[in-house]
Design a protein that fits this description.
This protein is an alpha+beta fold. It contains 3 helices and 5 strands. The strands form 2 sheets. Strands 3-4-5 form a 3-stranded antiparallel sheet.
Length: about 140
Amino acid sequence: MSDDERDEGHVWGRKAARGDGDARCGKPIRVVRDGGYVTAEAALVIPALVLFTGALLWGLMAACAQIQCVDAARAGARAAARSETPAAVDAAARGAAPRGARVAQSRKGDLVRVRVTAAAPGPGPLTLTLRGEATALAEDTVGR
């Protein structure tokens, strides 16, 4: 393929209309303009991308808070299974829980149960209630 065939229709990064020739040969070229369509498309796409990125970040933060709730419930259940005081169980659960979480503990027979509830980070309507629950066998009942 010759240089003329390879470069046909393109002059300095702009596309010429077919059959208009080449500026190097002295033939006139007609430059095709976009009429502002690129600007209009960018004005629509950029806010959509920003919104999409914000939604992804919110989802990631909510997933992290959910994992923290589950971890906090497990930590509290382990402490309760060791027959620690309710204050120590609460402190163990709150140490791993997201900020502002509520911790509830209960015992039914040989099982201890800890529930951690927290609000997902986010503005107004994006606030979800996240829950984590863990159950463990009380150590003082093992071997009876």
